[in-house]
Amino acid sequence: MRRVIYIALLLLLCTGVRAQDSTTTTDEEEYTAVVDTTVATESDKELTLEDKLREKQLPHSLWDDQRSGEWNDAAQGRLAREEIPAEKMEELRSMKALQYEEKPRDEKSTLNAIGAWVGQHLKFFRLLFYILLGLLLLMGIVLFIRKNDIPLFRRSHQRTEEGEILTAEGPQNYDALARAAIAAGNWREAVRMRYLHSLQLLEAKQLIAPGKDKTNMDYLRELASTAWYKPFATLTLHYEYIWYGQQPLNNGQFSQLEEQFSAFKTSLR
């Protein structure tokens, strides 16, 4: 009796294992089918209508798969590109209906184009503006210095003029040279000779000591404690303004300066 029960239990156990194996196999087959369907659906979704048209996956009555020059069995011939005669092309070109109408150029569009070009080169124009502004400022400074007779750039000139003339050339008859310049109407040269004659008189009175490296300002410093400082400073200002500043001079103006030089000469006697 026990053997019968054991045999029955073994049969039931074997039947349950086979049923489980068959169920597992069916589930795997269903899963595989679902996965294949999903992949196929996703691949169909990836191809858009544009892709299908480009790859000619959709049948269409207007598709022409035959290339130019290939043999066509249905037409029993080859496809050839039709060439338009030259006369026909000239006729088409001469037709007014096919000519483009040229619109007149608008002034506003021209101004806009100019404005756009200026905007593209704005850095260049800005740099040019600063350069011109700097040049104008420099010219203004130079004119101001010359007009106000500021001895900024004259020291070297004065050293090579008055100082060297008095020391290198030795005694000169500047009074005679001044009279010759007056007779020739050379008023600026006459003023220069009168000034050099005044320096010569100051040296003769031992009021100044001429030197190659000395300037008119040095002579004024040597005369600072004397009574001749103010008149000689006035003559020096006129001389530098006329000679170095290249100020034009007429006969009437020179006559006034001639009186001042004569008064200074008389005061040194």
Describe the protein's architecture and organization.
The structure is a single chain. The chain is mainly alpha-helical and 269 residues long. Among the domains are: 2-45; 155-267, no CATH class. 67% of the residues lie in helices and 1% in strands. It is built from 11 helices and 2 strands; from the N terminus they run H-H-E-E-H-H-H-H-H-H-H-H-H. The protein has helices at 2-46, 49-54, 86-94, 107-120, 122-147, 155-168, 174-183, 187-204, 216-222, 229-243, 251-267, and strands at 71-72, 77-78. A two-stranded antiparallel sheet has the order 1-2. Strand 1 (71-72) and strand 2 (77-78) form a beta hairpin. It is elongated and about 170 Å long. The termini are far apart. The model is unreliable at 155-160 (pLDDT under 50).
Task: Set out the fold topology.
Blueprint: H1 2-46, H2 49-54, E1 71-72, E2 77-78, H3 86-94, H4 107-120, H5 122-147, H6 155-168, H7 174-183, H8 187-204, H9 216-222, H10 229-243, H11 251-267
Short description:
With about 270 residues, the chain is mostly helical. It has helices at about 1-45, 50-55, 85-95, 105-120, 120-145, 155-170, 175-185, 185-205, 215-220, 230-245, 250-265; strands spanning about 70, 75-80.
**Average residue pLDDT:** 75
The portion of residues forming beta strands comes to under 5%
Which regions are unreliable across 5 or more consecutive residues at pLDDT < 50?
Answer: 155-160
Q: Please give the alpha-carbon distance between the first and last residues.
A: 176 Å
**Number of alpha- plus pi-helical segments:** 11
